[in-house]
Amino acid sequence: MNSREIAKTISKIENNELKVNSTRNYNAHVIGITGPLGVGKSTLVFQIAKHYADAGIKLGIILNDPSSENGGSFLGDRIRMQKLCEYDNVFIRSLSAKDSGGVAKISGEIINLLEEKGFEKIIIESVGAGQSEIEIANIVDTCIVVLMPGLGDEIQALKSGINEIADIFVVNKADINQAERTLRELEMLVNMRGKTSWKIPIVKTIAIKHKGINELIEKIELHNDYFKKNLTQIKKSKLRNELNYLIKYEINKKIDKKLNKLIETSVQDIINNNSDVNNAINKVVDKIKFES
Amino acid sequence: MSKKIRILIAKPGLDGHDRGAKVMANAFRDSGVEVIYTGLRQTPLQIVNAAIQEDVLVIGLSVLSGAHMHLCKEVLKLLKEKKAFDINVVVGGIIPEKDIKELKRIGIKSVFGPGTFMKDAVEFVKKLVK
Questions:
Q1: What secondary structure does DSSP assign to A73-94, as a single string?
Q2: What is d(CA A128, CA A122) in angstroms, rounded to the nearest whole number?
Q3: Residues B11 and B21: beta-carbon distance below 8 Å
Q4: How far is B83 from chain A (nearest CA, A)?
Q5: Does the structure's ipTM exceed the value 0.85?
Q6: Are B82 and A93 in contact (CB < 8 Å)?
Q7: Please, how many CA atoms are within 13 Å of residue A43, restricted to the half-sphere of its CB?
Q8: pTM attached to this predicted model
Q9: Chain A contacts in chain B segment 46-65 (CB below 8 A)
Q10: Cβ contacts (< 8 Å) between B6 and chain A: which residues?
């Protein structure tokens, strides 16, 4: 494996100089890790990754961190991965995610690239996610949602969003107060979904002490088996969601400039009492023509 | 859109004073650069592998331990071995005057000591990769 070549190719994709084959061949197993800020996603990624790396598996890791308004960014997820930097079978890349959705828009393309280059497992970590960063679920095979005790009461757990995309739930930092309560709330949530062919497991971990990692790996592999068995079916729905996201992204990009101008005019109109919010919205929507 | 500038900031060796490295990382971020910050106590091999995988144009090493000669030589040697000597290396920290000349001779692009204006360091790096 030539790391340099792969790294340079990724940069070209990032700079819009290159498009790679954008359909998966599903030879690799892609694992996604998402969850709120500070629950221990990076530490968990490290533990899972180390397990596979030690087993000699060719492993790709994609780490997403947010970027600032000015295009700059401070990508610090790698701090947790230091020990993996000396492995020959591990390739790690940090991405700045300026797009909504919790992962950089090009993440999907990079997964395809790594899969094509023969990586067997690919782990992708999202930015600290709230309740709407669900794009990661469309591009991974096994989606792990990481939570920790004390994040909020049961109502919080019932809210739609990232909780609905989990193939596996992890309650990390399980040695702090109220871990049992969080666990039970999640159990309730999972049971309320009714019978599905995949029962979402809930795994307790203390990632920093390597507790619960073996059980988590076991569940990840079980889900991989399930995924591969039901590939035709799942593939379709993932593809549908992915296209929905990417097409809307391109449309947004196209109308953004036009929109800014129209919004400025509307603001002036409203301030001068020539219009109100609802009127302005209707006017703008009418004005945008969706020619390509 | 102009091409992204990506740099890596790391602290090699046994030296826990990372304030300087973090302050510089923030200064670069604020100037629109993508900074990969890899943290404390790293081996030169970890740093060079990370720089290659992240495809950065510049490695910024922060050394306050006095081991700069040894660590810089090792990083440069590994870059050469891995055919990535086109990645620029700059150093910040407490470096005695007499060592600066030698560091530049072996291939370090610049040395930033105490009292450096952050703006100057950022401008230097940006010019370096133009």
A1: EEE-GGGGGGGGGG-TTEEEEE
A2: 19
A3: yes
A4: 9
A5: yes
A6: no
A7: 18
A8: 0.89
A9: 46-47, 49-50, 52-55
A10: 11
